[in-house]
Structure formats: structure tokens, C-alpha cells
Design brief:
Elements: H1 8-26, H2 33-38, H3 40-69, H4 76-85, H5 91-109, H6 116-125, H7 127-143
Helix pairs in contact: 1-3, 3-4, 3-5, 3-6, 3-7, 4-5, 5-7
Length: about 150
């Protein structure tokens, strides 16, 4: 695959999806596990919001790798490994992102094994990992404006 430029329109669209999904999660009744679990619609909404946020995050990583480095990847864990190798993310964050990729895959392929209780835990204790990944990508882009088709101002 040949290298071109990271398209700001794609970056902006993916970041917008992530922000909207995180905002959706913030509307759920997460202050009480029993309240969250009492309504199956909340569990379904939480799962959908989280899955879509993770998919947008990894699609953003895929775009950066394809357009910025000419590296084609489709597997989410491979995306994380390549982002680490290219210096887009640091080791500690890459480890957390690998966990996120694994959880997204469980939600899609092993959905019957994902419990509402573990989803609640992730929604209440681990959303900061998604935000940290977004922040790291934004910092990397600000430090590498020559790889982006438009100036990146965060």
C-alpha cells in the first residue's frame, strides 16, 4: 500500500462518533449498578454506545496507519501493534487498547458471553482508556502535521 496523507475529514468524523458515543454513555443511569441492570434497554444502549466508540477508535487507527504509513491492517489488535510500532501510542496505552480490542471482539463475536455486570464495570471504570487513546492520537497528530492533509489544531 502506498502512503498518502491522513485525511482530516476522516479523523474529524471518527472523533465525532467517539465523542457522541461517550456522550450517549454519560446519559445512562450509571450511578447505580442495580438501576442500570434493571432496564435491559440501558444495557443494550450501553453496549451499543461502547462498541461503536471502540469501532470508531480502531477505524481511526486503521486510517492513520493506511494513509500516514502505508500499512494496511484489518485486525484490531494488529492496528494497536502497528500504532505502537509507529510511535503513535506508548506501551502502557497500547496494552489498554489491546484489551479494548479484545472486548470489542467479544461483544461482536461472543456476545452471549458478555454479562451486563461486566459491561457496567467497563462503562463506569474504564471509559478513561478510550479518552486516553483519543488524546494520544490527537497529540501525535499535532506533533506530525506534515502527515495530515490539513493543519491539525486539536
Amino acid at each position: 500500500m502506498t502512503r498518502s496523507s491522513i485525511r482530516m475529514a476522516v479523523v474529524t468524523a471518527k472523533l465525532d462518533v467517539i465523542r457522541r458515543m461517550l456522550a450517549g454513555i454519560s446519559t445512562l443511569p450509571l450511578s447505580s449498578e442495580s438501576e442500570f441492570l434493571a432496564d435491559p434497554r440501558m444495557v443494550a444502549a450501553g453496549e451499543s454506545f461502547l462498541r461503536r466508540a471502540l469501532e470508531a477508535l480502531f477505524d481511526l487507527g486503521r486510517h492513520i496507519l493506511a494513509k500516514g504509513f502505508g500499512i494496511p491492517t484489518s485486525d484490531y489488535k494488529a492496528i494497536v501493534r502497528s500504532l505502537l510500532q509507529q510511535g503513535v501510542v506508548e506501551v502502557v496505552l497500547a496494552n489498554r487498547m489491546t484489551d479494548m480490542a479484545g472486548y470489542r471482539n467479544r461483544m461482536v463475536h461472543f456476545y452471549d458471553e458478555v454479562t451486563a455486570e461486566e459491561l457496567y464495570e467497563i462503562l463506569t471504570e474504564h471509559l478513561g482508556d478510550v479518552e486516553a487513546a483519543v488524546a494520544a492520537i490527537q497529540v501525535w497528530m499535532a506533533e506530525n502535521p506534515e502527515m495530515v492533509d490539513e493543519a491539525w489544531d486539536g
